[in-house]
Write a structure and sequence with these properties.
Blueprint (H helix, E strand, L loop, with lengths): L1 E5 L2 E4 L4 E8 L7 E7 L5 E8 L5 E3 L7 E6 L4 E6 L8 E8 L13 E2 L3 E6 L1
Parallel strand pairs: 2-11
Antiparallel strand pairs: 1-3, 3-8, 4-5, 4-9, 5-6, 7-8, 9-10, 9-11
Length: 123
């Protein structure tokens, strides 16, 4: 499985961005996908994870109500719509895929990772 993330950029606080993650290769092996982020000097944190087949989605409290993950099954693309962005959302965002149902909250449990896309929110 190959993952290619895109859509990051610079936006003012209160603005919106939509990240995309194109999955290719053995996408039939994917059980779930996640969005993670890592701010400068901080550890990686999970933002959301979603079932690849059932689209059941979980969000971190810090983004709940502002971010929405969705999937286009026709193009094997995972999206993260980010609204009402805050400076503390500034980070490199990564998409990841895993082939088993367990430990979807844990980055180390994911099997495949995209290259990361920078999101910068100015105050």
């Amino acid at each position: 499985v190959q993952l290619q993330a895109s859509g990051g950029g610079l936006v003012q606080a209160g603005g919106s961005l939509r990240l995309s993650c194109l999955a290719s290769g053995r996408t039939g092996d994917i059980y779930a996908m996640g969005w993670f982020r890592q701010a400068p000097g901080e550890g990686r944190e999970i933002v959301a994870h979603t079932g690849w087949r059932n689209s059941k989605t979980w969000y971190a409290d810090s983004v709940k109500g502002r971010f929405t993950a969705s999937r286009d099954s026709a193009t094997n693309t995972l999206y993260l719509q980010m609204n009402k962005l805050k400076p503390e959302d500034t980070a490199v965002y990564y998409c990841a895929a895993k082939t088993s149902p367990d430990y979807q909250m844990i980055g180390g449990a994911y099997d495949y990772w995209g290259q990361g896309t920078q999101v910068t929110v100015s105050s």
